[in-house]
Write a structure and sequence with these properties.
Layout: H1 3-16, H2 18-30, H3 35-49, H4 57-71, H5 74-86, H6 91-104, H7 107-134
Helix pairs in contact: 1-2, 1-3, 2-3, 4-5, 4-6, 5-7, 6-7
């Protein structure tokens, strides 16, 4: 495996957790349909861009959220809401991102993003409840 893919998997693990990173590695290793795209993502997106020093991860999350809102990339936005929380954004700041985006990306795009973020926040709350009940 290329060093940049390994670095990407390490960055991805920091952003989305060991289980999700292992799923990405397994996808790459199995060589099935989609493996090449996953490898490219780990190599370029996370191994090259997210690993750069020019912006901290919090700033990268803010930029990424804004772009995904403007592009109306709802599914990818959900992934990056989780990443943004990992990178230190608060729920209040996420809401401010949606409000700011409504001015520049349009209200429908920001409203759809807001609904996607609500789904993620609700899922996280359910995950936490499930974890708490295991204690």
């Amino acid at each position: 495996m290329k060093p940049s893919i390994e670095q990407g998997l390490a960055v991805f693990e920091q952003l989305r957790g060991a289980e999700r990173s292992q799923q990405m590695k397994s996808s790459i290793d199995n060589g099935a349909f989609g493996a090449a795209m996953t490898a490219l993502s780990m190599d370029f997106v996370f191994g090259s861009v997210w690993a750069r020093d020019g912006l901290d991860r919090r700033a990268r999350s803010l930029v990424t959220l804004g772009i995904l809102i403007a592009l109306r990339q709802r599914d990818e936005l959900k992934n990056h809401v989780r990443i943004a929380l990992t990178n230190g954004l608060t729920v209040d700041e996420l809401e401010e991102v949606m409000i700011q985006a409504s001015v520049y990306a349009g209200f429908p795009a920001a409203h759809a993003a807001n609904n996607a973020a609500i789904e993620v926040l609700e899922a996280i709350a359910l995950e936490r409840e499930g974890d708490a009940s295991k204690d």
